[in-house]
# Entry
Amino acid sequence: MEFRIAADELKKALYRAQGIVERKTTMPILANVLVNATKGGITVTAFDLDIGIVSEHPAEVIKTGAVTLSAKYVFDIVQNLPDAQVTLKKLANNYVDIASGSAHFKIVGMAAEEYPKLPKEENAPLVQVGGNTLLEMIKKTQFAISSDETRYILNGVFFEPQSSGKVRMVATDGHRLSLIERELTGDFKLKSGVIIPRKGLMELKRLLDEAPDAECHLGFAENSALFKKPGLTMVMRLIDGQFPEYQRVIPKEGEKVVLVPKVRLLEGLKRIALLSADKSNAVRIGLAENKLIITASNPDLGEARDEVELAYQGKDITVGFNARYLMDVLAVTDTDEVSFELGDEHSPGVLHAPGDRTFTAVVMPMRV
# Structure
């Protein structure tokens, strides 16, 4: 195997692999990428047995062949090459010579035949999706994914096509929930929703971030998802399990609804959370006549208070919340104002755009 390629092109392929390859693994080959040179160019494959990416790149192929190389070390090398072009040549015993300008590296590789095969996904019906829409849906749900490995069905986002040609994505960690519904027309041929794992979702987000306007296709087979865009294919295993009945935790419209300036509330929460107790980020949100009051107290540090002016004439109420959970929602909200619904001190808070519940976040109350 021997080929010549633009260093930036190879760097792009190796960058895509960084989030997937397993550095601490009982299978050393999973820390490698499979580089395959054919007459049409090269493909670079990264696979951790759950998520796989095959990336296609133009190259001047002198001799076809394949080898696997360390994803991390070759990426570091390519980032520091002196020339815009780089030549890779496979030597005896799977060594690979990397040459660029005055620099030469001889890297230990492993046999391509030992690299695990990606699952075949010919039976996944692909639907063209808007990259920007899918990216928005990921950004507005990812923060609510649970990191508790014992509740594995919550370690991903629930992807649920609706009968109206729309798709709903939902994430919850038991303390908060985020739901977004957007138009993704096309028949995914799913009997019910599927759970996309966090790691796969983050890699999908990274690929969409590269070029959100590129033509994208998404499909689902029995227990895996398939994503394609020009020059790239990604496959990932889905989480096997039943997602909880999330509709039951979304309250009907709260008794007290206020419109709050988003930036002002976000800044207030950041300030007051500085004095919240320990890691819980606990703050109190109070409603009084024409104002929202944010307070926190810490026996070791003292107390903090901030007031946000708004229109409110109802009964006074104070509810405890984790400030970080509220800030996560506000950080991805697009509108200048946010609708904040409250029931009583034991009821969750609901945040959404004014008059639009297609993106809704639910935050459970805390005892403060």
Remarks:
- The two ends are 65 Å apart (CA to CA).
- The first strand starts at residue 2 and ends at 6.
- The chain has six helices and 25 strands.
- The chain has a mean pLDDT of 94.
